[in-house]
Amino acid sequence: MGVGQLMVRTKREAYYDNLKFWLITIVVIGHFVEFYMNENAVCRWLWYYIYIFHMPLFIFVTALFLKSTINRKPFRIDKILSYLIMCYFMKVTILLLKQYWFGVEQEFSIFDGEGPWWFLFVIAAYIPITYLLRDVKKTYVFFGSIVVALIIGFDDTVFTYMTLSRLIVGYPFFYAGYCLDRQAIKSVCKGSGKLKRISAVLFLLASALTLALNIDIYPKIAGLSTMRNPYAYLGIDEAYGAIARLLFYVLVFLMMLAIMIIILEKRAFYTNWGSRTLQFM
């Protein structure tokens, strides 16, 4: 590998390591403010704002790094098993901690999708689904997955069972990450210099201010951002539920793009920390 190639590789890894660091940091902040959201209006606003984009972006970035695994032949069943093992190990560990430390009794069920382990479960499902769809025209799969996600919201029986709702609603983010090239994304996000970065910051500030000034939409935003609630739970007419979810997709993709634009391309003091996170990707 030549010096020029090595420099490009280092920059690319620095950019995504920085992105992974901020993803983990946002998750930590989100879980921290969740403890105070019922007592503090700022914490409540911050929690709702973070949850609009942070899990879709997690899913998207994970797909970026799983593309080679999905396309590899023969198909790697061990990758699916590793996600499932991590999923249920986390689930059992959290249930035991709740029981012995906090005295909270909770029945174990492999079909219950309520809890932080749902992310690992859906990634395990996305890998074989995407492998089977790899030869289908990408535009059909992407827009088809959005249509299915819009339709599933009308079914109020699909909730947390096997994280089915999150699996379906989150798949467009995963498939977008699968289809796009990491280097191309970095080139698009980091081109045009300061103007693009300023625009991204202004968009994120405008969306944050809009949420802060419209407290009454908090429950509806939460219902959409968790990706698990049918339209009947959103507090709006079901007839408008699909429109709300479609607008949610547009908003989230724009927020994801804005965040990736403001991420530093060069190495920073936290870059190495980012390289040690999300090792399962």
Topology overview:
Blueprint: H1 3-34, H2 41-71, H3 77-101, H4 118-132, H5 138-152, H6 164-179, H7 182-190, H8 193-212, H9 218-225, H10 241-262, H11 271-275
Helix pairs in contact: 1-2, 2-4, 2-6, 2-9, 2-10, 3-4, 4-6, 5-6, 5-10, 7-10, 8-10
Write structural notes for this entry:
- With 281 residues, this protein is mainly alpha-helical.
- It is built from eleven helices and no strands.
- It has helices at residues 3-34, 41-71, 77-101, 118-132, 138-152, 164-179, 182-190, 193-212, 218-225, 241-262, 271-275.
- The longest helix has 32 residues, at 3-34.
- The protein is globular, with a radius of gyration of 19 Å.
- The two termini are 24 Å apart.
Summarize the structure.
With 281 residues, the protein is mostly helical. The chain contains eleven helices and no strands.
Descriptors for this entry?
11 helices; mainly alpha; 281 residues; globular; disordered N terminus
Question: How large is the count of helical segments?
Answer: 11
Strand content: under 5%
Q: Report the major sheet.
A: none
Averaged pLDDT:
84
Shape: globular
Q: Report helical residue fraction.
A: over 70%
**Structural class per helix/strand content?**
mainly alpha
The low-confidence runs, each spanning 5 or more residues with pLDDT under 50, are: 1-12
**Alpha-carbon distance between the termini?**
24 Å
What's the β-strand tally? 0
Rg, alpha carbons: 19 Å
Order of helices and strands: HHHHHHHHHHH
